[in-house]
């Protein structure tokens, strides 16, 4: 986590120092002693945990116990370091396991079959959630925080590297950026071979590659999509290492020097993955307007989960922005082609063979996020399907070659994608009681409160503390809720029959010229919204006119329903596709430029942002540019400058937007070198978002939910006539495999 | 925030020093769309518009059509007189020393000429020497300009003796060729004073084939290329050069004075019966509208004979001042890139067209 490293020196609490001291002293002990100590400690801890979890307490004692635990939580919550975090995790485990023990032993006496179905459904969903919670704690309790290993040897001893840029249908204008940046990587020219693997077999790509002198590789079929494409290229290349970048992932110039050191140090290392970083907002960030203010869906994975996996030697391959050692990859037969998530499966196979994998949490490449919700969903469907396929065909719990930690990390990665059904259960569970009066939870309202609240509060606060930088409270529910309906079916299908084909989802890439509402995608959530609103109506009715003895039970269910309503309405807000005017997203960055005007005068200023097509400038006061004025922009650097012809296209006060005129290949390459391939641009925004505060997140989500309902009403009024005929525009199907990684 | 700081910023984040980082700016050859067009557009035969030999000295139709200049009417008459003299001199030679004239070097000979000083002839000549390579051949720069600037540009001690010294001793030029930047070969003019220059110029006036014979004596192969730098204006040096070369490269700038001077230059060249004469515009300042306008005017006037434009690039002159080879030091700068395309155009003209040889002989 670079974010923590940034606070140099890292502020260590007293507890952290204590922990460090114990650890360092233990390392001096003989191996047998420390093993003995470990086993004894584990046994004692397990016994204690068992005793605490199963201890029968009546209501008042349980309340007192919960209060003490919660008090302890509040006391240690704000302390820095890993020991307090571990303590919080322990407390949370105690609360959750106590709840689950009580739940399984005390609350399942159902009266009839109807109650039983709903009741067991809910328990199973809860068991799933608990499993993921526990595995999640295991995964993230101790992020390895690997640092780069710098290369000490002379450049003529550095290994040869093949850079693979697989592409299928991405536009040349986008892929160009990646190719130029790959050429600009600081690595000896004779040891850096850039290959464009074009499954689209396009002439303009071939011509472009010829003109700038990179290899262009095609094959005569498209079998196994990207995995097949990479494997084919493996056959015709021979570099010692392979760096893979998706067509829209632009590497920085420091990529290889930062990543390759570990391979030289550890001969058994087969794979090193770096984060996928996006310089454009994903549909959530775009439609909810949370770009860079709320961590996105992927940030938790790359910020924390992968770093935690690394401790267990279980870092995953994510298909792009990674380096692989050729010999080890060939040893497992190349990139895995059995499933649609070839990347994770390849890593699993490497781990099974006993090779090491590593993760380096420094963004050394950046790409474009999926443009629209439908594309985003179709991508996640593919991941979910692939993970379910691996779960079925190459289950990490079974088979040889994996350590327990690796098994758990891989298993959790797969389990994570099974959230579809449980999430829908949680979103509808209270309705069973409110609408159908089903007694799915056999306990008094007070007992429920005494057990459920500690479980929920501990889990939320602990996660907020552990993940705060990479996932804000409650957002997990929103991300899952949006996708739940869509990934549920493919996952279930893949579990039943792994080879079953994909599901097509509508595609609408590129520029979104006008705001519109994704009726078709939002339909499940509109139905959920209606159901929950009905539930609230019933609940209020029960509360006012119903039996006063069950008022508290109704109250609990009503609160749950209201929470669900907030999550669902936030999910609806995502379905309202915001306008996206620019095709090239601009990246905020400040560096010095000199501007030459056509009348011969010059001035210097600072950029605000840049894109492939232009830069945004903040001009000094007194300089008056005209729209359409021809300029020459020199991007300054230490030894030399390069001139780019440009036109001022947008002027607002001191802010000037410029667009480059037609640039030569040389100039385009220079531009990429000076902008996108800068080493520090992405790392400086990594993990530096706002820290999570649960109440703040709740407030934010509440207002987003309101907006969602407002958009829904507005869209209803606007598209009333189209409502029954699904979306206003005809949809075109897209192969799930076509999406971006 | 300068660019090199990006590595420092990154490394500070994980508390490492940049010592172990190696900045490698690999340089790649790009095939620009422009070049492709240019190569296709260069005519195989010299275009007739401007430098078709007009023995009578009348202005070519293109020039007459240009409404912009008044200069030629003032400058042309005395020039014509000069040129007529030159022509007469040649006719005398044609008759008298026919055999001597036949002796000429096998190498391709290029001259950088201009009517006006300070247009960057030496810089372009030096750059061309470094880049232009024919297979199995050497490229030799010969500085025929008493300023003796070429040696410095190629990284050779400018006090080293050159053709001035060699000629005075009446000997062969070959031992005086030195090796400069990028393994270029250079015969500098050598240090000179008023007297020695006068002797040399007298020598040239007496023997119009002096340069041609000197070069022929060097026993260069047909794969070799000789690039001659000349002093500006119509001098004895220019006359010598025009007798000898396969290709004249007229260097001009995109400004008023150069535009005017071009008239004079074209007139001198018309008389010389050159097989090939091409133009290059140097120091185009794309940040200035005027410079761009002048470039456009020149482009219209010269048509296909304009083979390259080199943009103003302060890095070139700065590198020179520091005695560095700009082509090596800052190969990506606009100026260097332009020079590369210039060189490609010359290469194309001279080394890939068999038709030139027949014309030249």
Describe this structure in words.
The complex is a heterodimer of chains A (741) and B (361). Chain A is an alpha+beta fold and 741 residues long. Mean pLDDT of chain A is 87; it is low at 1-10, 503-510 and 727-741. By secondary structure, chain B is an alpha/beta fold. Helix content of chain B is 47%, strand content 12%. Chain B has 17 helices and 8 strands. An 8-stranded mixed sheet of chain B has the order 3-4-2-5-1-6-7-8, with helices on both faces. In chain B, α4 packs parallel to α12 (256-271) and α6 (121-131) packs across α16. Residues 34-76, 97-101 and 355-361 of chain B have low confidence and may be disordered. Chains A and B meet through α1, α8, β14, β17 and β18 of A and α1 and α13 of B.
Instruction: Compute the CA-based radius of gyration of chain A.
Output: 28 Å
Shape of chain B: globular
Largest β-sheet summary of chain B: 8 strands, mixed
Compressed to H and E, one letter per element, the order of chain B equals HHHHHEHEHHEEHHEHEHEHEHHHH
How far from one another are the termini of chain B?
A: 58 Å
Structural class of chain A: alpha+beta
Sheet with the most strands: spatial strand order of chain B: 3-4-2-5-1-6-7-8
* Lateral strand order in the biggest sheet of chain A: 3-2-1-4-7-6-8
Helix content of chain A: 40-55%
What's the total count of β strands of chain B? 8
Counted beta strands of chain A: 20
Report the C-alpha radius of gyration of chain B, rounded.
22 Å
Low-pLDDT stretches of chain A are: 1-10, 503-510, 727-741
Largest sheet of chain A: 7 strands, mixed
Mean pLDDT of chain A: 87
Structural class of chain B, by secondary structure, is alpha/beta
Oligomer: heterodimer
Cα distance spanning the termini of chain A? 23 Å
Strand content of chain A: 5-15%
Average pLDDT for all residues of chain B: 75
């Amino acid at each position: 986590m670079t974010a923590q490293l940034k606070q140099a020196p890292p502020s260590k609490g007293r507890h952290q120092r204590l922990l460090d001291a114990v650890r360092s002293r233990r390392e001096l002990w003989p191996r047998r002693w420390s093993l003995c100590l470990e086993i004894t400690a584990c046994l004692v801890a397990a016994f204690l945990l068992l005793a605490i979890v199963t201890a029968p307490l009546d209501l008042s004692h349980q309340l007192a116990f919960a209060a003490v635990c919660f008090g302890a939580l509040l006391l240690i919550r704000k302390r820095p370091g890993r020991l307090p975090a571990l303590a919080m995790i322990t407390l949370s485990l105690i609360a959750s396991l106590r709840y689950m023990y009580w739940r399984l032993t005390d609350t399942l006496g159902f009266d009839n079959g109807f109650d039983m179905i709903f009741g067991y459904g809910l328990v199973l969903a809860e068991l799933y959630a608990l499993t993921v919670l526990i595995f999640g704690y295991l995964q993230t309790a101790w992020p390895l925080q690997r640092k780069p290993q710098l290369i000490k040897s002379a450049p003529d001893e550095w290994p040869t590297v093949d850079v693979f840029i697989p592409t299928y249908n991405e536009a040349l204008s986008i892929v160009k950026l990646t190719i130029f940046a790959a050429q600009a990587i600081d690595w000896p020219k004779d040891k850096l071979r850039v290959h464009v693997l074009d499954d689209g077999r396009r002439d303009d790509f071939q011509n472009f590659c010829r003109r700038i002198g990179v290899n262009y590789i095609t094959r005569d079929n498209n079998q196994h999509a990207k995995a097949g494409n990479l494997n084919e290229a493996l056959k015709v290349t021979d570099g010692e290492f392979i760096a893979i970048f998706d067509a829209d992932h632009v590497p920085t110039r420091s990529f290889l020097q930062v990543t390759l050191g570990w391979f030289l140090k550890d001969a058994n290392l087969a794979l090193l993955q770096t984060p996928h970083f996006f310089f454009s907002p994903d549909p959530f960030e775009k439609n909810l307007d949370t770009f860079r203010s709320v961590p996105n869906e992927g940030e938790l994975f790359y910020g924390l989960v992968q770093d935690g996996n690394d401790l267990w030697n279980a870092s995953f391959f994510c298909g792009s922005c990674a380096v692989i050692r050729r010999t080890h990859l060939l040893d497992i037969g190349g990139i895995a082609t059995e499933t649609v998530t070839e990347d994770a499966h390849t890593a699993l196979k490497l781990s099974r063979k006993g090779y090491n994998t590593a993760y380096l949490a420094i963004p050394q490449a950046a790409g474009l996020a999926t443009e629209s919700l439908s594309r985003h969903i179709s991508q996640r469907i593919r991941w979910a399907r692939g993970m379910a396929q691996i779960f079925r065909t190459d289950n990490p719990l079974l088979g040889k070659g994996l350590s327990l930690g690796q098994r758990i990390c891989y298993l959790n990665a797969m389990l994570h994608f099974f959230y579809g059904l449980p999430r829908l259960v949680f979103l509808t569970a209270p309705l069973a009681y409110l609408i159908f009066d089903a007694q799915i939870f056999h306990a008094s309202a007070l007992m429920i409160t005494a057990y459920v609240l500690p479980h929920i509060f501990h889990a939320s606060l602990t996660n907020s503390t552990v993940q705060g930088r990479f996932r804000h409270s409650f957002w997990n529910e929103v991300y899952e809720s949006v996708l739940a309906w869509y990934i549920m079916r493919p996952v279930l299908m893949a579990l039943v029959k792994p080879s079953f084909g994909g599901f097509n989802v509508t595609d609408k890439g590129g520029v979104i010229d006008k705001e519109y509402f994704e009726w078709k995608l939002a339909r499940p959530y509109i139905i959920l919204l209606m159901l929950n609103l009905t539930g609230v109506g019933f609940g209020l009715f029960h509360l006012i006119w119903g039996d006063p003895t069950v008022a508290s039970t109704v109250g609990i269910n009503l609160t749950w329903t209201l929470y669900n309503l907030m999550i669902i309405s936030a999910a609806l807000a995502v379905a309202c596709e915001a306008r996206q005017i620019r095709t090239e997203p601009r990246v905020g960055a400040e560096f010095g430029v000199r501007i030459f005007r056509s009348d011969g005068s010059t001035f210097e200023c600072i950029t605000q942002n840049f894109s492939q097509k232009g830069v945004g400038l903040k001009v000094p006061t007194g300089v008056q540019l005209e729209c359409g004025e021809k300029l020459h922009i020199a991007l300054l650097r230490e030894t030399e400058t390069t001139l780019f012809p440009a036109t001022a296209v947008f002027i607002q006060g001191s802010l000037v937007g410029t667009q480059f005129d037609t640039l030569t290949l040389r100039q385009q390459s220079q531009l990429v070198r000076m902008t996108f391939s800068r080493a520090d641009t992405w790392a400086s925004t990594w993990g530096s978002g706002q820290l999570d505060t649960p109440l703040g997140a709740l407030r934010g989500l509440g207002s987003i939910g309101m907006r969602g309902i407002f958009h829904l009403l507005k869209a209803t009024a606007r598209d009333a006539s189209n409502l029954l005929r699904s979306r206003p525009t005809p949809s075109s199907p897209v192969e799930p495999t076509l999406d971006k990684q | 925030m300068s660019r090199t700081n990006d590595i420092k910023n990154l490394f500070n984040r994980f508390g490492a020093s940049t010592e172990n980082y190696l900045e490698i700016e690999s340089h790649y050859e790009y095939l620009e769309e422009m070049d492709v067009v240019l190569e296709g557009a260069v005519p195989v035969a010299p275009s007739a518009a401007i430098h078709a030999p007009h023995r009578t000295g009348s202005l070519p139709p293109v020039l007459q059509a240009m409404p912009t200049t008044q200069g030629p009417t003032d400058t042309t008459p005395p020039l014509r007189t000069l040129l007529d003299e030159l022509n007469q001199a040649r006719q005398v030679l044609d008759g008298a020393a026919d055999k001597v004239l036949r002796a000429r070097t096998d190498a391709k000979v290029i001259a950088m000429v201009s009517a006006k000083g300070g247009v960057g002839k030496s810089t372009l000549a030096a750059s061309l020497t470094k880049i232009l390579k024919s297979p199995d051949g050497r490229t030799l720069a010969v500085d025929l300009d008493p300023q003796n600037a070429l040696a410095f540009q190629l990284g050779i001690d400018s006090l080293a003796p050159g053709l001035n010294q060699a000629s005075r001793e009446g000997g062969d030029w070959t031992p005086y060729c030195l090796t400069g930047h990028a393994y270029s070969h250079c015969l500098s003019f050598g240090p000179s004073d008023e007297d020695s220059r006068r002797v040399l110029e007298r020598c040239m006036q007496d023997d119009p084939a002096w340069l041609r014979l000197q070069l022929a004596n060097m026993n260069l192969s047909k794969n070799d290329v000789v690039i001659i730098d000349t002093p500006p204006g119509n001098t004895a040096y220019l006359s010598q050069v025009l007798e000898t070369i396969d290709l004249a490269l007229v260097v001009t700038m995109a400004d008023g004075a150069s535009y005017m001077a071009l008239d004079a230059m074209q007139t001198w060249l018309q008389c010389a019966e050159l097989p090939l004469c091409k133009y290059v515009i140097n120091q185009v300042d794309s940040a200035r509208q005027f410079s761009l306008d002048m470039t456009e005017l020149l482009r219209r006037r010269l048509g296909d004979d304009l083979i390259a434009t080199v943009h103003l690039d302060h890095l070139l002159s700065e590198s020179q001042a520091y005695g560095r080879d700009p082509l090596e030091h800052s190969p990506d700068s606009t100026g260097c890139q332009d020079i590369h395309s210039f060189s490609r155009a010359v290469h194309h003209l001279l080394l890939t067209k068999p038709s030139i040889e027949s014309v030249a002989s």
